[in-house]
Amino acid sequence: MPSKSFVKFVGLILLLSLGPASIYFLYKRTGGLESRVELEFHRNARFLFMGGIETIDPSVLTEWSWERVCAFGSGLSQAEVDGLVGFSYENFTQLTWRNLDDHWTLLFIDSERDTNWGLHRPVTPIRIPIPDISDFRVADGSIGSCVDRENARLALERREVPLGQTPITAHLIDVSRRAAE
Questions:
Q1: 87 secondary structure, DSSP code
Q2: pTM assigned to the model
Q3: Helix H segments across 86-134?
Q4: Confidence class for position 31, pLDDT limits 50, 70, 90
Q5: What's the mean pLDDT in 5-25?
Q6: In 10 A of CB 126, how many CB atoms?
Q7: Which residues, in sequence order, are CB contacts of 123 under 8 Å at separation 6+?
Q8: Measuring CA to CA, which residue among 110, 168, 161 is closest to residue 134?
Q9: Among 60, 43, 24, 1, which residue's Cα sits nearest to residue 129?
């Protein structure tokens, strides 16, 4: 029969081991905790979605500097994302939700600048949960799209869905191309 102190020690070890296991589960199943920037973006997007408008300028949803926005769904490799954005995206592994089928991503990309540690290109990733915020649609045969700030719009489609799901489907469009067509 083990002593009481040994049982307490084993219990403490088991309790402490739940922390890393629960963090691993959180990141693998949900993509991790949402940042303050993501939460604010989601809240503002919901307010605009309720307005019934058909297109939204993404710059009204952001308070940070960016020149181009890229949108893509789940399951892309780093090479595919690098090809889409046009440079090697160093923080690809931090997109912990990238393989979850119920999320899509907006990358807000700013200009490259010289910093103390060399050239740096600020990129603000925003995950969009499909059941809660919006579904996502890309052009046929495309893995995603990138649009300059002045021409970027989120085109919204609404449909009937069961209670508890978002009725919104978003599509990143380039208004300069639409005007030319």
A1: S
A2: 0.79
A3: none
A4: low
A5: 70
A6: 23
A7: 85, 89, 91, 107, 108, 109, 110
A8: 168
A9: 43
